[in-house]
Amino acid sequence: MLTQLSRLNLQADGQYATDQELQFLEDYLNSAEQRIRTYEKIRENESSILVEVETKMHELNKNNSLFFMGQHEKEICRRDRQNAVRYSSAAMLINDLDRLRDGLLIWVQTIVRAVGYKYFVGTHYPIIQEVIKQYLTPEEAALILPALQIDCTILGA
């Protein structure tokens, strides 16, 4: 939304925006109530979602069979999971996946590549998507899943 507003500001400089150029605002306003409800539901269930994701990741990586995770790495992953859910939820709320991608994910991608956790991210983020869907209606999930899929695509690339 913020990215689209910036583009509109540049495109409509000194003139009125067309109906077509304003369509994204109408679309956003029509979905704003549901976006807020979805955001609130994720916020209220964040700790349960994260515990369930961690449990599933632990099952997947029993005895460090996929990748070694010491206590320090586990703490970093917990923090990163929480940030992923929070930043993705914020991007969904304001309907600005470009801002999520350009403002955060490209930077985090550099770190993921540097520490060699691409494979971990590729297995991890689909689990976040799977778990979060259990806490949401299909309509709510349809709002947040694109942000989580971008997380997975960019960080796992």
TrEMBL record:
Enumerate the Gene Ontology biological process terms. photosynthesis
Q: Which InterPro entries match?
A: Globin-like_sf, Phycobilisome_asu/bsu, Phycobilisome_asu/bsu_sf
Coiled-coil regions listed in the entry: none
Q: Which GO terms describe its cellular component?
A: phycobilisome
Q: Which SUPFAM superfamilies match?
A: Globin-like
Keywords (alphabetical) are: Bile pigment, Chromophore
Task: Name the protein family.
Answer: Belongs to the phycobiliprotein family.
- Name listed for the protein in its UniProt record: Phycobilisome protein
Give the organism, scientific name. Aphanothece sacrum FPU1
